[in-house]
Amino acid sequence: MEIFSSAVVRRALFAMMAVCVVMEGIFTGYEMTADGISYLDLSDLIARHQWHWVVNAYWHPGYPALLLLGRTVLRSSLWNELTAVRCVNVAIAGGLFLAVRFALRAAVELRESFGFDRVEGALVPLRRETVGVFAAGITLLSVTRELGVGAVRPDVLLAMLLVFGAGFLMRVGARKNLLSYAGLGFCFGLAFLVKSVAFPTFAIVLLLLPFVAGSMKKAAKGFAVAVLIFAALAGPYIGALSKQKGRFSAGDSGGLNYAWYVDGADRFEQQKNEPSRYGLAKGELKHTSVQVLQDPAIYYYGTVMPGSEAQWLDPSYWNDGLKPRFNVKAEARTMRYGLTIVVQYFVLRLQYVLLVLVLLMMGGRWRREEFGWRGAGPVLLLLAAGVGMYVVVYTEARYIASAAVLALIVLVAFVRIPKGWQGAAAMGAFVFAGMVVCSSFTESMRDIKQNKNAEGRAVGAYNRAIFTAGEGLGSAAGIQPGDTVACLGEAACRDDFYWARLAQVHVRTEMYVESEPISEVWERADKERVMAALRSTGAKALVAKFGANVTPPSGWTRLGAGDFFVIYL
Fold it and tell me: What is the pTM of this model?
């Protein structure tokens, strides 16, 4: 079993993991959401120095700034920007592996700093090399399954910074030096510029510092250093947000998500200023759309908001004044759903279950004292609080992935096995990591085949229907960059309006359809009144997605090679 302790073998395994991450980023299928388009639009606003719109209480500027940097360095055009974005995401994923390595070493150092390893007995910790292979496999599984590098979203970046921050928290316990406190403030300050959830997370870290350091007196200087560095990074943005909103604000995403997911307010439609759409939430909205026609409902969002789609560039603007309200039944329902997701996260990932079972079968044990306030207890409490913040509002697997990765790494770093099982543990780590590598590589090869068959190219950052729709609309006679267009139905207006970004137009008018088939809504509408209402908003075209196998109503023209259709106004 000595081969599993070889540095050459480990490096070869890590190289294969790097290949898997690159393949996952470049060849996974096209994936775009309204959130991703907003991040790309914000990167454009940063390039144009339109800071008023960059300062955003819902989307923070850290990830868009990195997207702009990547697009600039790679000199990408609008038509290949998604490939550049995926390259940025792959680089960030590399940073996450480094963060996990750093946190792993910090955990081992914390364990050693209190003399836990000097306890007499037949049980000993795993070798650092073995723990490193386990940690790399856990990280790769999370990157390819939950976090993803093919989507335009900041989850990997946030996970990287939070894992680095947790590593510095363990360094505080091990070293108690000012550099470790400074690292805490630096990581969480940058994390706040990525997502506002870092603000309450950092507050929890500050509460834990006296316990980690041993006393408030010992933590005082470091506490001040961490707060000052965090304030230097996050303070200017918090100040700009507060000035913009006329009140203290570190971001509105938490409150808005609570109103949407717990109170049941409509995410997109509550800006119509109809209290019946607020659910259990309350308030009086400051910015509302203009209803230009009642049946069918047509709404206009004005020319103030830039971006590809007027509603989603800054949801905090359109929802300014919406206030969440606590309700016991609604909260209980939300928490039940969230806890189900947390349990399923581990139950449905047999690799994690097998990892723990293998450690137990080898005689693995954990000492209670190593998980107290002097050991790994504070970092596990931080992870539980981080998961809890999502459970009480809205939970997805990708939101809890970084906490799950850290929890597993801490368990592996602190486990003890009989001395004679070290070779078997090393082999088990390689088998575990090898299974993840094979699974990731197989899925990437499947994606290559599927993309080739469906889109005509292996690269995943392409969707024929979306791209040809954008190309067709952008090159149509009478359509100029910056023009206003209208959309009909959920598929064209909400699910993926990347076609509008490619055509360089702005969706500022919506023909709203709640649940009926959009073709039926169109057929029974007074066409002359509808067209007149749309033209009154300045819209040059109306775009809808009727479906691949649906015959569109009379007067509609296929837009591109997919299932989008258009009427030019």
Answer: 0.93
